[in-house]
Amino acid sequence: MAASSGAAGVWFRKCLRLHDNEALVKACAFSEVVPFFILDPHFNRSAVGVNRFAFLLQSLQDLDAQLRLRGSRLLVFQGRPHEVLADLFNGKAGVRLSRLYFEKDTEPYARSRDVQVECLAKEHRVSIESFSGHTLLDIDATVANPKFKPPISMKSMQSIMTAAGPIRKPFDIPKIPPLNIEGFEVPKISNIYSEVPTSTGFPGGEQEALSRLRHVCADADYVCQFEKPKTASTGRPGCPWEPSTTGLSPYLKFGCLSVRTAWHAIDQCIRGKRHSEPPQSLHGQMLFREMFYLLGASVPNFDRNEGNSMCKPIPWGDNPVFLQAWQEGRTGYPFIDALMRQLNQTGYMHHLGRHAVACFLTRGDLWQSWTCGRDVFDKLLLDADWALNNGNWLWLAGVAPFSAPYFRIYDPCPGPNSSLNAEQTGEFVKHYVPELKGMPSKYLYKPWTAPLAEQKKAGCIIGQDYPKPIVDHKLAREENLARFKAALNGQVLPEKFGCATSDPGPMCSSLSKGRGKRAEVATLNTEPDERKQRRWGKGPKDDTLAGG
DNA sequence: GGATCCGTTGTAGCT
DNA sequence: AAGCTACAACGGATC
């Protein structure tokens, strides 16, 4: 097989697709093409939840199947990329590459990996070419423009788009040369994880991605009327586990779906019709994605509390008990807990749900650093994306210049007028917090206010079958507002403002005596912590494209 | 340089 | 039911 001249390798990393794949197109100008993926131990079980890993493997399976339909196949190697690639450049494993093509990746880990790979290729006299494809803009080229300023508003983002000119059309799938090599199959999730995937709603892969996109675009009204704040954070009636949005974000994250293909498909839908506009429209969601990619690529320390021009210094607390309760959905706030349990179970959460839980963890209630929540999302979300995740957490923690004013705090018990779009049937909460199944809807979001008799009748004693609220929202909110304000003035408020205690004790809003006994565990950490529409739509799922 | 406006998605209470 | 106001009051952009 491998002729002496060597083959052209197509290294799939993101961009797990055949459509609109420039690296594939370029490689297929040669007669021998080796499509491959490297399972990098950097993305291991402690970094990636089982659901996202399963999604990745499904995507690889699909990619392999599509390649086989065309007489080729996907080789899956396991190991550190530079070691695997050294073997491929040397001609071990029955393959010898003399050229390497891949899509650029602007995440910090990917950049350092790729720099290493470029050196290696030079040593082996392997020619390398990479292409911008994961984003609408060429991120590096945009940032390199001397006039570039990090965009912190939709307005500035739109002017960057305008200056960049029209978005190029997707590439067609090229004719792919045959490949006959045995082995290097896509592994099974059970060979890698002892846990079993629990997410069923999002099968990975390009075919699923394209079919979802078709489904979304089949309903032009839906696309034309799409306004993010009007989509329901609590899923669809009858199926609270189903997103009320497009559900495309995991596919964009892995590049199962080309962002250009999606952009033009949506463009087709809205062209010549009355339609919603950025920032709330679907195109608007995609512009936020670009914005965060630009920020991630241009702002030093974008993922940190210190040295980050997009992050104001706030003396966040350090309370592992709070963090864990939040992470596991045991805060005693049913809406928050339902959302967090949904994340753990399914790897998905509506964008507005992310707002609710992120605000709750940070400036709203628990006063924990956004980086802690960021890490949880980074591991568990199917659509976890470095730039978007960091950008959204900065936004929600209120520390970024693009954040909403810090004093706008979400109520963790959203009522019918809440912008969080909680349904009032309680279907969503009851689905993910089944302890509360019997609770009358008037108490569902605040079950601790139910009289004991009602709690007994519902089979759910608060403090026993379901936790008491971990903090008193009203008080925590007040104190956090004061602390945030002080921090903006360069002050750290004295001890009496500590809202954090690891043992919330018998705390109901009606019982709480307030500040007196609450400060013992609270650590006002002055050292920055861096330890490490249609609302009820008929058809399609959709989701947060900006997805962080 | 000061005033004003605006920022994808706040909430509660009133009319 | 939609729209107003009070609440408390940031900071970047624009005039």
UniProtKB/TrEMBL annotation:
- Report the residue ranges that make up the Photolyase/cryptochrome alpha/beta domain in this protein: 6-136
Q: Which domain of life is it from?
A: Eukaryota
Q: Where is this region: Disordered?
A: 508-548
Keywords associated with the record: FAD, Flavoprotein
InterPro entries according to UniProt: Crypto/Photolyase_FAD-like_sf, Crypto/Photolyase_N_sf, Cryptochr/Photolyase_FAD-bd, Cryptochrome/DNA_photolyase_1, DNA_photolyase_N, Rossmann-like_a/b/a_fold
The cross-references to SUPFAM superfamilies, in alphabetical order and at most eight, read: Cryptochrome/photolyase FAD-binding domain, Cryptochrome/photolyase, N-terminal domain
In the record, the note on similarity to other proteins reads: Belongs to the DNA photolyase class-1 family.
Q: What is this protein called?
A: Photolyase/cryptochrome alpha/beta domain-containing protein
Q: Which organism is it from?
A: Durusdinium trenchii
